[in-house]
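To: structure subgroup
Subject: Chain for Friday's discussion

All,

I'm putting the inputs and outputs inline so they're searchable in the archive.
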Amino acid sequence: MARRTLVLLISSIVFNLCGAFASVSDDHSRPMILPLHLSSPNANWHHRQAFDGRRLQRSEPNSQMRLYDDLLANGYYTTRLWIGTPPQQFALIVDTGSTVTYVPCFDCEQCGRHQDPRFQPDLSSTYQPVKCDINCNCDKKEAQCTYERRYAEMSSSSGVLGEDVLSFGNESELVPQRAVFGCENIETGDLYSQRADGIMGLGRGRLSVMDQLVDKGVISDSFSLCYGGMGVGGGAMVLGSIKSPPDMVFSNSDPFRSPYYNIELKEIHVAGKPLKLNPKIFDGKHGTVLDSGTTYAYLPKDAFHAFKDAVTRKVNFLKQIHGPDPNYQDICFSGAGRDVTQLSKVFPQVDMVFTKGQKVSLSPENYLFPHTKVSGAYCLGIFENGDSTTLLGGIVTRNTLVTYDRANDKIGFWKTNCSELWKRLNYSNAPPPAPSAFDGRNTSVEISPSIAPSGLPDTVIPGVLQVGLISFDMMLSINNTIKPNFTELAESIAHELELNISQVRLMNYTHTGNNFVIRWAIVPAESANCFSNTKAMGIIRRFKEHQMQIPQKFGSYQLGSYQLVKLKVEPQMKRSWWKQHYWAVAVAVIVTSVLGLLALGTWLVWKYRLQDIVSYEPVAARAIVPEQELQPL
């Protein structure tokens, strides 16, 4: 196979605006936050209470990290972690139910194809294997410690343990730290097929990232997660303590009760009425467990049926339908409408009540997921558990800041807009953007590449930037004269940017010898005129942070690089009335033509029949012909 190399050059990214734009000042004094990836253009699912940056402050040095992806689209949220010197990047699922952080190793015997290249210990000058001793299981050579983890959905991970430098991103004020992690040799089940590279274990255990950082004394024994809402995704993670908002609701969490993060759930209310259950039902086996790595929630049998019946009674005016997957007995309702901001007017509020009577309110996005085949239909994201444990997955904590205060054995809940939280944490000290007048003229503004990606807002807010088009140039260098398969390349770009293939369009390309320069355009979905700013910023960030992967046949990402040369912001040309309504006009013309032809045909038939009646002569008016007899043969 001919060797190919790939260089991606973002020579221009062009924005067509639907509205006015505003600049946001950058704040370079930031705590360490790990971000969750954004994966959906709908950024206005719920208008949460406005986040006040002064209410949530750092109490000690911590690591703030962005969260990525979407709970229902991907089944998880990820963050970015860098391992080694020089650092190698990985997208890891944030999992409070796991105690080991692991990534695929370069020599993995059975690992799937994931988002980033596998970890290569030989390329890191700071990597050291964890040598075998009496405190660990050893490999076949009795030289290196090993690990193995199995999960309820029948997936597993096993490999060797190594130690290297972990880096937490540019937004983090926590300097890189040495830590032990797993280098996978075998993956099975969902771990093999998932797009994420591995797991970031935040559970209780000596191999957990949290335990290792706390033992080093670099952060306090606390961390927080905030998952973005329905159709929005994203969010933030903070390793270390933050000052809790005054109205945060806490529940005790007993580390001796189970190895998992548990809470003291006593009651569940639906529309203000408690379910008729024994309070001890939520205390079976491991109790009520929070697991960020689980997508949905699972209740013991009696609790599930009581919850299902209570919700069904409240929405008895909706039609109950089958779920999107015939292999599962999902409970779904149609007729709720496509506007997810109005779901709280259709579905009841649910409250979780703790030991001392504290309540955490759950909106519909915390127990529903959209039906993927029926528009305006939603299904219960609460299911029956196979045992007596109550398991609360990520769906229950969407748009909720959850603080795992391990030092004080308690877990706090605070409703907020988690997709906005990342921006607030990073820009809480920045002055508000100056208002800008937009007169609709075809003006353009040049934006510095270093400012634009971090300065653009993360959600659609009236009066700020809305992106109508993103274009970029890609330089592809190969060692033969075969023209690249543009259709396959477009599919790969769409997959990486989490778009429909119809949104990635080839504009043109030129080539000199073996060098191709390809111009692409990224357009909104057919049903929208603009991207949400959340989606647009997610796409831009993928380019800026070198997160887009290209199939091996087009070259290795490790051999290429991105360079953001220029950003140009332009208002989108407003479509004429004809362009906006041409389908309606066309339909009206066709209908009018059909009706006209029917009317003309009716008139012609009527006229023909009238003429026939007029020309008919009665028998008496005709000439009488004498009757003649038959002549004999």
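Points worth raising on Friday:
The longest helix spans residues 577-614.
Residues 1-59, 427-464, 555-573, 616-633 have pLDDT under 50 and may be disordered.

D.
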